[in-house]
Amino acid sequence: MTPQQRSNCMRRIRSKNTRPEMLVRRFLFSHGFRYRIHAKTLPGTPDLTIVGLRTCIFINGCFWHGHEGCSLYRLPQTHTDYWRQKFLRNQERDHENRLALKAQGWHTIEVWECQLKKTEREQTLQGLLRTLNYIALQNRGAKINYHYDDEENLSIAAEQE
Predict the structure, then answer these.
(1) Which of 44, 77, 106, 140 could form a disulfide with 97 if both were Cys (CB 3.0 to 4.6 A apart)?
(2) Rounded to two decimals, what is the model's pTM?
(3) What average pLDDT score do residues 46-72 get?
(4) What is the Cα–Cα distance from 115 to 27, expressed in whole angstroms?
């Protein structure tokens, strides 16, 4: 690729409202969870914030956040020092943001892009639902709504107050 082609390609990469993020948002909304998107007042600007559960969800791209052992993460062959440092900075920033959120009393959940591939998507989303349901049950101040989804599995959603 020429530098101009590479620049155009990189310019089209979005940081908000990505396909993996939209998959998670639609799934959670369909299961009764209400959330805020891209809360700028919280460290790291979480992709989703469920205020009633004090839970932040980060949906990370495997390439940009350096997901080790993932097929979607590969260190570029040119300017490797620059990219290695960039990925390390991103990982350190992610870690610092999670620590800051924990210090403020927030739960954090990290969902990786590779976990939302077709073959793993259902398992990942059901695991996310179980985790949020557990947090909802532990959160004494939340008003719990019970309902059954299409497969007659019990789903629990906390209403925000």
Answers:
(1) 44
(2) 0.77
(3) 89
(4) 14
Question: In sequence order, what are the beta bridge partners of 157?
Answer: 145
* Mean pLDDT on 124-131: 93
Q: Which of 34, 60, 31, 64 is nearest to 49 (CA)?
A: 34
Strands 107-112 and 55-60: parallel
* Distance separating alpha carbons of residues 113 and 35, to the nearest angstrom: 20
Average pLDDT over residues 85-99: 93
Q: What mean pLDDT value characterizes the chain?
A: 83
- The residue type found at 157 is A
Domain 17-159 has CATH 3.40.30.10: no
Residue with tokens 């599995």: 153
Compute the distance between CA of residue 94 and CA of residue 44 in angstroms, rounded to an integer.
7
N-terminal to C-terminal alpha carbon distance within the chain = 52
Integer Cα distance of 153 and 140 in angstroms: 23
